[in-house]
Fold:
Amino acid sequence: MSKLNTYREGPDETGHFDIYGGRYVAETLMPLILEVQEAWDKAKNDVAYWDEFNRYMKHYVGRPSPLYLAERLTDHFGGAKVYFKRDELNHTGAHKINNTIGQILLAKRMGKGRIIAETGAGQHGVATATVCALFGLPCVVYMGETDVKRQRPNVVRMKMLGAEIVPVTAGTGTLKDAMNEALRDWVSNVEDTFYIIGTAAGPHPYPAMVRDFQCVIGNETKEQMMEMEGRLPDTCIAAIGGGSNAIGLFHPFLDDDSVNLIGVEAAGHGIETGEHCASLNGGRPGVLHGNRTYLLQTEDGQIVDGHSISAGLDYPGIGPEHSWLRDTGRVNYVSITDKEALEAFQLCTKKEGIIPALEPSHALAHVAKIAPDLPKDHLIVMNLCGRGDKDVDAVAGYLGMD
Amino acid sequence: MTTESRPETRITRKFAALKAEGRAGLVTFLTAGDPTPEASEDILLGIAEAGADLIEIGMPFSDPMADGPAIQASSLRALKAGMTLPKTLEIVRSFRKKDDDTPIILMGYFNPIYIYGVDRFLTDAREAGIDGLIVVDLPPEEEGELCLPAIEAGLNFIYLTAPTTDDKRLPKVVKHASGFVYYVSITGITGTKSADAGQVGEAVARIRRHTDLPVAVGFGIKTPDQAAEIAKVADAAVVGSALVQVIADNRDENGAPLPGTKDKVLELVGALADGVRGARN
Ligand SMILES: Cc1ncc(COP(=O)(O)O)c(C=O)c1O
Structure:
C-alpha cells in the first residue's frame, strides 16, 4: 500500500478503518451504540469534558506517569537507550484506568445509573470497579471462570471495591465469553446501563473512543522525550492484547515518519503450535464483537481460544485500527513466547527493581532482542503499562518458587 | 423501496397463502447439527408435516452474542458434533428433495458466512433451496456486506426490529427488508424473558405503519398458549429455545439423542401449530 499523508484521521463516519471496524451488532444493541456515539461526538468536542478528564488524570490517577531511563537494562543490553513509560505507577497499577475514567464521565453525562464491564486479567475490572466506587455507581463485572481462578488477587480487589463479579462459564470461560456475556447483559438492560469496554475494540465508537483516552500515554511520552533528549524517540514498543495501551502510545507518533512502531503479540507456546494469541501474526480477518478485525479462528469461521501466560493478552481478536495499521505497514507487529516473557519479567525485576506485569514483559522481551544490536544513540520507549503484583503467584508457580 | 427489489420466494408465497387462509403461521427454529448432524436432519425432515409453516435453521457459531443459554448450548453441541456450514446446506438439500414448498430461512452470525465467502455462500444457499437469511449481527448500517448481495441473488434478507427500534429508526431498518419483518419482542436475548401480548400488539401495529411486509414475532414464546396469543396480533409466531430445550433434555450421558427425541420435538411443534391455527377462531 502507498504511504498516506496521515494515519491519524480514522475511522470514517461509519466507524471503519478501511475494511476494519464497523458496527456488527444485533438490532437490539444498535440504538444503544448510536446513543453512545452521539454522546461521545458531543463530549469529545467539549472543553469542559476534557478539563474534567485531565483533572482526574492528574489528581486521581497520578499523571503524568514518568518517562524513566532504565540505565541498568540499557547497560545490560549494551546498545540502544531504553526508556520505560511508567503507566504501571498509575492508580490501580495499569493503563486501564485512563480509559475507565473517560468512559464513566461519559456514562455520567448520559445519565446512566449502572455500569457493566468484561475483564480478562482483571485489570480492567479493577479499574472499572474503582471508578464505580468513586462515582457511586453499581458495577457488574463479567469474567471468564478460568480467569477468575488465575487472577484471584484482582477478583478480591473488585469485590472489596463493591463490584459484583459474574463468573462466565458459557463457551470456554475466557475473555471472549466474558465479552459476549457483557453484551448480552447490555441488550437485556438497555435503559440504565453503560458498557465500559476495556480495550480499543468492539463496535464503533469504542475503538476510537478508547484510543482517544489512552492517547494520554503517547502525548506525554512525546513531550517528555522532547524535554529529556530534545528529540523524538526512534522506536516505540508496546504489548498487544486488544491493543489499547499500544494504540495509546503509537497514535500520537503515527505521522512522525522517523518513529518506528512495534506491537508485540503473545506467541504463547509458539505460533507454530497453534497455542498463542497472535491475531495479526496467526489469524485472519473476520467479524466478532461488533467489528471486523484479525481473529483467531478455524477454517469454518468459528472463533478459537488463544493461549498466553498472560491473561491480559489472551484474546482472540485485536482492535480494528491495529488490523488496518498492519495492512498499511505503518506499524510492525511481532510476537513473543511465554518463555521469553517470563525471562524478561525476571530481568526487569532483578535489574531495575520493578516487577512488571506479564503483559509488558512481552514488550520488554522484544526490546531485549533488538536493543543490543542498535546504536547507543537509538532511543527506545517501551510502555510499561502494568505492574506485576497480580502475577506474582502465577510466576512463582512457573518458576517453582514456594 | 420498491417491490421489485423484494425477491419473490417461498416465504412471500407462504405468507400470501396464510393471509388467504386467514391465520397466522408458525415459524420453528432449530440449530443445524444439534445434537448430531444425523439426528438434526431427521428432525428437520419431519418438522413441516408436524405443523411448521416456515422453518428457521440456525447456523451454529462459537460466539452467539444475541442468544440465551438454550441456543448457546445447542450451538456448542452442534459444533462439537462436527457441524459446518456445508453440512447445513446438505440438510437443506435433503429437505428439498421431499418438500419444495415450505420456506427455509438460515439464521446465524456473519463470520462463518464471511469466511465461506459471500458470493459462494449466496450461490450455494440459493441452489440448496434457501429462501431467506437472518444474520443477527448485520444491522442496516452494514447492509452492503450481505443484505444487498442477497437481494441481488434472489433471497429475502430479513431484518430484526426490537423494542429499542423507534419510529425514527424503523424506516431505515425496513428499507431493504423483504420476506417478513422479525420483531424481537423483548429487550434481551433468546429464551429468557417473555413479552406481554398487549405490548406486542402495539409494537406490531407500530411496525405496520412503516411497512406492508408480514410481521413475525419471536424471542420468549415457549408454550402453545403464548404462541396463540401472539398469533392473534402478528402474522407469525417464532419458537426456538423451547424446541431446542427438548433436544437438550433428551440426551444420554454421551450427548447422543435418546430414542423418541424426534417424536417429542415434533409433538411440541404440533401443539404449537394447533395453538397458532386456533388463535383467531
Ligand atoms: C497490564 C496490562 N497490559 C496490557 C493489557 C492488554 O490490553 P491492551 O492491549 O488493551 O492494552 C492488559 C489487559 O488486561 C493489562 O492488564
